[in-house]
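Input record (one chain):
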Amino acid sequence: MAGLEGRAFTMLTFRTRSPLAALPLLLHVVTGRMSLVGPCPLTPGHRECTGEGRRRLSVRPGLTGPWQISGRSDLPWEERELLDLHYVDHHWLGTDLLILARTLPAVRRRRAAGRPARVA
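The corresponding structure, as predicted from the sequence alone:
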């Protein structure tokens, strides 16, 4: 994945839909490769990491972010990119706390709707 300033790192994950799936991702937070809140993690060669989208690399990717509380996989790529770039340009502690507070209810709503939940 593309981390801060585009530095590549290997994202560890468990292939499970249980809460255990988040454990390897928390290791990335502890080691500084990821943040709790930030733009959606992408591969270094992804089109959203080039051009104007390169701004997203000025912050660490997050376990959760605006895409997580705003429809996740239901969002078109363009809207997800706009949410991430808006976050990059305007993030502050209050925004992060609000996103963290809304993440669990968003995941619960997703599970209640019968769709598998993803952590990031």
